[in-house]
Amino acid sequence: MAELQLRSVEKSYGNGFKAVHGIDLHVKEGEFMVLVGPSGCAKSTTLRMIAGLETITGGEVLIGDRVVNDLVPGKRGIAMVFQNYALYPHMQVRRNLSFGLRLKRQPKEQIESATQDVSGVLEIEELLDRLPKQLSGGQAQRVALGRALIKQPEVFLFDEPLSNLDAKLRASMRVRITDLHKRLRDEARPATVVYVTHDQVEAMTMGDRICVMKDGHIMQVADPTTLYDRPANAFVAGFIGMPEMNLVPAALAGGKGGQSLTLDGQSISVGKDLEARLESSGGRVTMGIRPQHLEIVAADADDALTGKIVNLEFMGHEVNLHADVGGETFVCVVPSDQFDKNLQRGDRVGLRPRTSKMHVFDIHTGANISLA
Amino acid sequence: MSDLIQPLSESTEPPTALQIKLQRRSRWNAVLRYTLLTVVGFVMIYPLLWLVGASFKSNAEMFSSAWFWPKDATVQGYIDGWKTSTPYTFATFFFNSMQIVIPKVIGTAISCTLVAYGFARFEFPGKKILFAILIATLLLPDVVTRIPQYLLFRELGWLDTYLPLIAPAWLAGDAFFVFMMIQFLRAIPREMEEAARVDGANTAQTLIFIVVPILMPALVSVCLFQFMWTMNDFLGPLIYISTVEKYPVSLALKLSIDATEAFNWNSILAMTVLALTPSLVVFFIAQKSFIEGISTGGVKG
């Protein structure tokens, strides 16, 4: 096992399009790093550059202390799991698993015992003599996982491995992969993992750290809690969390009772906690508040924004309330048992943000100016 | 139609008048359709049936009736035909045909796979132009190249050998096959090859262990087409082969028409039946992969 380092790695194409803009990333030995971002953010390209399936047009990739830029994939000490499994269709599971070892001309007994080990771990012993077309999606993905595991690589690369599975299976495979990672760590042979996904649930539940990407730039690298509580910018704030954080333009201004945020002619005081964190004293900003941190109060209450209910979504355990405040829609999540059943679409309602949980972003750069 | 009929067999209630009417109509439809298909099918296959039947007729009976079943079946046609009017038996000619067909099929399989793999999976300078030229040769009529080709092979001193027939196949000379393989390859996801590369395979190993097995149905189709076309090729051997001893089956059949004053039609037909047999046998052996090959190649390409 080894650490993985990306040093100002770039990817540009012949037609001048630049997909990756000099990213730096350090994945520690045994760390589970998730690359996440919307489609087209170059997360897969980055992974494929680490794997050696795409050329690196700038910067360096290091596995352990070796620069691997010019090594073929087979010599980099990596293993990869693909989204569509990419099992060799003409080989039985057993031969699929052992293909890499057979290419290296390892002794037969060693290959046999490695195959047994891996199939034991992944519970695919009874599938060993089947062909890939005789496997279900989940089974095929386990075999693909086994094919990576058997090589005992220095770095594991996952390219959206669960996207082709149904929701239930995805949840169980998620647990299986994280369990496996923990188990390898406990057995003192920790696995360094880079895992690409566009699913923030996968990212939050699996990653030791998460690297959020957008348009070939890294937006923030942090552990899940930090990412959620202290997003570095408006993009990360909006990308992580369900439903999305409410991000609306507002005016920040000082006053005798302390600073306040104004939108649609309504002012709310920012409170001591947020005021202490703020790096700016006035001007146009983007205010951000998670739907979970909005409290429903009576219309026209103090330190609350009054709006009109435009939609109500009953989710069972909670209710998503959409309210329009001066043309901006706020989403507010209320547990079902605390929800006032009399509220209806069209009603006026007050939304009181928990200011200690509020963020303020620079309206132009999107940077979080309330982190200090 | 089947939707209307389906519930009838499952329901316990007696069928209504409308259901009975529909059922009867659909039965009539089926009878009509199958009768028509059978008749047309029979008309289509009749010449072949006649060929096989007539090869067992005597020469005198040949043109007395259009019906294919021989009155007095005889294998004399086969005996005479096999001997031929030359010093060689048909065994020689079959052997000659195989000397052309087998190297040609093997050459086609290897060269077309390599060229198609190159075009489908690699970027190299001039790829677009080269591919355009390849496709252009598809559209070029064979006749145009006959004379320059002949002159070329004459310069090389290859006349009256099998080389002019075989060598082009080893150089992926059949653009159609290359094109067919490229189309098939394009339908195969690249991830499998990428997985093989991650597993440590080099380009040649990826081709041999991963791509070729997946390509097998297409490869079988290519081999089968090449086998049948070469077996039936008349013009190529006619131009390049001048010694009777080296004649393949297709030329030998013509030989028996030339040599005799009164044609022994029954022996000609008998040898025609034999000449068809290898292609038919090979086709039925490879039928499953062949149909898989042309259908996937066509649909996904």
Helix proportion range of chain A: 25-40%
| Quaternary structure type | heterodimer
SS-based class of chain B: mainly alpha
The first-level CATH class of the largest domain in chain B is given as Mainly Alpha
Rounded average pLDDT of chain A: 92
The name of the CATH architecture of the largest domain in chain A is 3-Layer(aba) Sandwich
Instruction: Name the poorly predicted regions of chain B.
Output: 1-9, 297-301
Count of structural domains of chain A: 2
For the biggest β-sheet of chain A, the strand order reads 6-7-8-3-9-10
Write the CATH fold name of the largest domain in chain B.
Answer: MetI-like fold
Q: What is the count of helical runs of chain B?
A: 13
Name of the level-1 CATH class of the largest domain in chain A:
Alpha Beta
For this structure, the CATH topology of the largest domain in chain A is Rossmann fold
How do the strands and helices of this protein lay out in sequence?
The complex is a heterodimer of chains A (372) and B (301).
Chain A: E1 4-12, E2 18-27, E3 32-36, H1 43-51, E4 58-63, E5 66-67, E6 78-81, H2 93-103, H3 108-121, H4 137-149, E7 155-159, H5 167-186, E8 192-197, H6 200-206, E9 209-214, E10 217-222, H7 224-229, H8 234-239, E11 246-253, E12 260-263, E13 266-269, H9 271-277, E14 283-289, E15 294-297, E16 305-314, E17 318-325, E18 328-335, E19 348-353, E20 359-362
Helix pairs in contact in A: 2-3, 2-4
Chain B: H1 2-10, H2 17-54, H3 76-83, H4 90-121, H5 127-139, H6 142-155, H7 163-170, H8 175-186, H9 191-198, H10 203-232, H11 235-240, H12 249-259, H13 265-300
Transmembrane segments (chain B): 31-52, 93-117, 129-153, 165-185, 206-229, 263-286
Pfam family, one (chain B): BPD_transp_1
Membrane topology (chain B): Multi-pass membrane protein
